[in-house]
Amino acid sequence: MEDMLSETKKQITARAAALGELLQDHKGVNVSVLDLYGICNWTDFFIITTVSSQTHMDGLERHIRDFCREKEIDILGCSRSRKDSDDEWRLIDLGSIILHLMTEQAREFYDLERLWGPAAKL
Fold this sequence. Notes:
Layout: H1 2-25, E1 29-35, E2 45-50, H2 54-71, E3 77-78, E4 89-93, E5 97-102, H3 104-110, H4 112-115, E6 120-121
């Protein structure tokens, strides 16, 4: 049983690392992959990146959706504001991995890295 849990943790970690690289490859700014395993009981990783524009945010979401489709990962939810032009923070929920696409202003204001300070960074 422990071997199976360890293998699942390795798979989730590999997916989180791959998603972090995907965001960097597509010009996500200051990508942080926070390992919340053992700190949080509802997810294992936060991936946070700053976007440069609404178009950039939409493009990153599209790349994430393509990645998930290719790897057969279910997207459990995606938050959006009613007016896409006001969208400062898009959260994409993959269950064990939560992605945060944020404008610079939203990222500075909410400062998720500080809130989850004990988390190790990949």
